[in-house]
Amino acid sequence: MSSAGTSWGRPELTTNARFREHRAHLAEQDTGGVFRYIYEQNLWGSPESVSGQGSESAATEHIRAEIPALLRRWRVRSIADVPCGDFGWLSTTDLGVTSYFGADIVPELVERNRQRYAADDRRFEVLDLTRDRLPAADLLLCRDCLVHLSFEQIRAALRNIRDSGVGHLLTTTFPELEVNVDVETGDWRPLNLQLAPFTFPEPLELITEGCEEGDGHYADKALGLWRVADLPDVD
């Protein structure tokens, strides 16, 4: 895979290059170790957020307005946010829900969030989306996560979500992408969840983020909403 382009026809981001510079070390880690190392080394390279450029204030301006509106339309009262990352962009957003559960696979990040943001209606826990039991919630927000997982781990995460009792899934998708490719967990590529090997149905709603990374090549980046009961079996 060259730096000039990729098999999905879009330019690589600096995220990919940083990951591959550390690939030998990351290959020795389990999933938690991969993302802990990325956090410790700030491999996603944002000066504002350890969760990466996609979690910066400018990159989330549109969705910080649109997500609460979507939650109101679907009468969402409880939300699980997995992974929650550093909770930076959501910390300034009034979601209008009665309970928020944020989880991440990096213990140090979770502890930092607890110290900064925990409240009676907001808690943070360590959780691996691919295997740990998810809390019951009206909606699971899973932004900028599956794009960093291998196909095998995405399938595990989707099975876990289907078994959780969560009502709706709001997650990252690139609806104009023409082919999905596999990567090592911790790397990055866009995903169109309506294509093989996932074949999601049409989303109930799409929030286009207005992504400016990649000189406009990722302008279709969106949060898609699905009923978990409507998701296909990925076994």
From TrEMBL:
Family annotation (InterPro entries): SAM-dependent_MTases_sf (IPR029063)
Keywords recorded for this protein, A-Z: Methyltransferase, Transferase
Domain of life: Bacteria
GO BP annotation list: methylation
GO molecular function: methyltransferase activity
The protein's name in its UniProt record: Class I SAM-dependent methyltransferase
Species: Saccharopolyspora hirsuta
